[in-house]
Amino acid sequence: MDHYEAGDDPGVTFCIGHHEPNRSLTVTADHVIRAHESNYDMLTVPITTTHFHSRVLSLLSSYLSDLESPKSDRLGTMATSQNTRPLVIPPLTKLDSRLTPNEAISQLVGVTSSWIDLCSPDPLIADLSRQVFMLEVAYAAFCGIGYLLIPSPKLHHGNLHSEGVVYYARAVQDALSLGPYIQFHIWLKMVDNPEMEVDTMGDLAPFARQEYLQPEPSSSTKIDPFGTWDAWDLVRKTCKYHSRLLVALSMPKQLPALCVQSRWHSEPVHLLTIDASSFLKNPKGYPVLSKAHQAFIARLMRLRTPPWIILCNVGPVPGLDEPEESEGAQSQLSPSEYPSLKASKKHHDPTPHLSYIRNLQERQPPRTPIERFGTGYQDYLQAPLQPLTVNLESITYEVFEKDPIKYEWYERAITKALKDWADQKKPTSHPDGKVIVAVVGAGRGPLVTRALKASAAAGVEIDLWAVEKNQNAFVLLQRHNENLWDGKVTLVQSDMRSWKGPRVSRLATTTTETQQAGDESQGAGNAASETSASPSGLSDGVYTHVDIVVSELLGSFADNELSPECLDGINDLIHPAHGISIPASYSAHLTPISAPKLHSDIVNQTVSNPAAPETPYVVMLHAIDFLSTAESTTNTEPLNQHSSSRASGTSSPTPATEFPTPFVQTAWTFSHPNRNIPPPSQTSSTVSNAHNVRQTRLSFPIQNRGVCHGIAGYFETVLYGDVELSTNPVTMDAKSATMISWFPIYFPLKTPLNVPDNGEVVVTMYRQTDDRKVWYEWMVEVYALERTTPTAAWLASPVSPAGRSGSPGTDTLKGKDPVARPQGSGSSQPGFRRVRVGMSEFHSSIKEGCLM
Ligand SMILES: C[S@@+](CC[C@H](N)C(=O)[O-])C[C@H]1O[C@@H](n2cnc3c(N)ncnc32)[C@H](O)[C@@H]1O
């Protein structure tokens, strides 16, 4: 592949904003220019003023003073007409907002009021909050605001936990229609820490009437690592994965476990807010972020849409919130250049947090060639190739040929096979003693070149044949044979399934003649034609076997581009005793994933393409979360999360300590030559493909609750001996690191399935065929672990986010994969049983099946 100079990479540019919660001015274009001069890219603005806040509070208190205490009606409901009598907030006045439609508006992120409580259990407070929110959204939309930051739902009300999030979600759903050009960012903490959720002066929450609150004898103060994610999940589901509904993630001083970081990495985090309190101080007293924070930011910045960073409570923008500071010069210093605070005044940096983040931007690790190769393909859904019915373009072959590993590994495999052939003194199928090698599906010929190199490296003479059905690529093969290969290769333009095999002369060969001969045994339509430099006396030639067949017909899920069917077509041509196929075998691997972005894209596509949710896609998986991981979630083993695509693009190896290792299992395997193909039926003219049907049912323990949107698929292949290729994230580094030819495959679920903590996902999958095409069928079941008898063990092992105590129903784990198995096996634990709590429909890609 191309070599990139480090200087070629423009790197990531951070977009950085400034948040001042009490900004009390009308932000104009001048202010924005001043912010730009200070090196900020944008500013936040509150939609309404303290005047509006006071107005709502006085309205509420006078209303409450006239109100009778809430009572239940005869049916025991508190929602009587008396209790829900509406309090209507009059429209905004000029004192209620400083926002005005001006040239600055596109550089602003509006912030709705944080003092409301859309989740309040008191219908009066919830409704009042909803009105405030709607007035603010409507006014922001009127002014032309494009981005809104919506403070998070309040999760704790006395003893009630997350009960009102659905009211919040419903209000956001309305807001999406009210502001049709606004992107809504729900401002969420990474974890739910009840102690961090404190009411401040003027908040509406404390006005909730006691009658609606549960008594609070033992209110839990336990941190729930997935508590805020749960709230987000509810909101985005209510809003049907709306494309304008995004996450603003607040980065805490103490980062949560990797499994929580991974979860947020898979969600549409478009704003990342960093409060001054999340910074540490370096020895010189300057604000810096911990290594873990830096790594998390680096991870987010490699996403297809990197989030904007908003700095909060970091002091004023010079000349804006505090005009006297405007003289201060903006500094851009590397950490070593940071002056001591005690240093002279001329080094005073008025925006040290911003300088640090800008410096961090400069220090982002350069993207690897592979990352650059895949730029723009992260989470981009591509339909798999139809290799038999569609002839590839030259540019597609060109992309394949950039792979720095694949061809190298093929050459190693062929070299080893030839050496072994010679060492084992195996007879050859050629009367001259040459080993007959056929590259089938030769494309533009890179494997042909490698086979010639392997022959030279091994010191073993070969008779080389190249078979290709793409007539356009065949032109290049002819040209290469003349210019690169010295006419040493016999070219056959044919579908390999109708090729009769190599013909050799019993006579000694010469290489003087080039001729094209119709294969008399073929019909005119699919005639195989040979362009041959040898042997001479072709008319006397006899068909013989191939000793080594070399092919590269693999798809992202191994067999999905019909390698088994194509190689079956030449199975009988391979020498029955000594013949070798490179690859010797290949297997499909899978694991369930959370992939909200892919789900949202497929939902959108379904409008025009009803088959969209039942299509397996080739996709460079990036914003995903592995639901089943093989090790403790606090594990920090290095891992490349993603592999690559068949087509245009590649994987993005991610730095170490990024992801818990996924639990990836083998679905099925194919081997070649296949000595077990049943003989053709006496009673049917069509050849049965039933032997290429496969089925599997695999169980995946789930540590942390989440949503299963679909299944990620990978492949591994043994080319020859110990020479292997892999896109499986668990083995790819060991087997074929930096290979770029394939992205993973993704089997979506029409309806995502929620999975509980310590749950289990069971995937059932088929490879189906009707002798004309091949397709896949898949379904997912979700199991929860139910306690049947109380045991001391259960009481002593509550659900732990940082390391599960056991997993249910792993009885189908057959230990096929050489990875550490998740601990425990819930179904075999005494006192537990598996309960099915969710199930997808059977999905089938028959409409998009691969034609044989
Ligand atoms: C993935 S490409 C590989 C091309 C080349 N070997 C390489 O590695 O760059 C697969 C090639 O096999 C060819 N092919 C697929 N099925 C075939 C068949 N049944 N008979 C002949 N060629 C086939 C395709 O046209 C394509 O050129």
Automatic annotation (TrEMBL):
The keyword Repeat does not apply. InterPro entries: Arg_MeTrfase, Arg_MeTrfase_PRMT5, PRMT5, PRMT5_C, PRMT5_TIM, SAM-dependent_MTases_sf. S-adenosyl-L-methionine binds at residues 397, 406-407, 468, 495-496. Residues 371-582 form the PRMT5 arginine-N-methyltransferase domain. The record marks 400 as: Critical for specifying symmetric addition of methyl groups. GO terms for molecular function: protein-arginine N-methyltransferase activity. Residues 643-657 have a biased composition (Low complexity). Residues 39-362 form the PRMT5 TIM barrel domain. PROSITE patterns: SAM_MT_PRMT (PS51678). Residues 328-337, 507-519, 528-537, 633-642 have a biased composition (Polar residues). Residues 321-367, 502-538, 633-657, 796-834 are annotated as: Disordered. One of its GO terms (cellular component) is nucleus. Transmembrane segments: none annotated. Residues 585-849 form the PRMT5 oligomerisation domain. It comes from the Eukaryota. GO terms for biological process: methylation; regulation of DNA-templated transcription. The active site is at 552 (proton donor/acceptor), 561 (proton donor/acceptor). Belongs to the class I-like SAM-binding methyltransferase superfamily. This is Protein arginine N-methyltransferase. It comes from Penicillium oxalicum (strain 114-2 / CGMCC 5302).
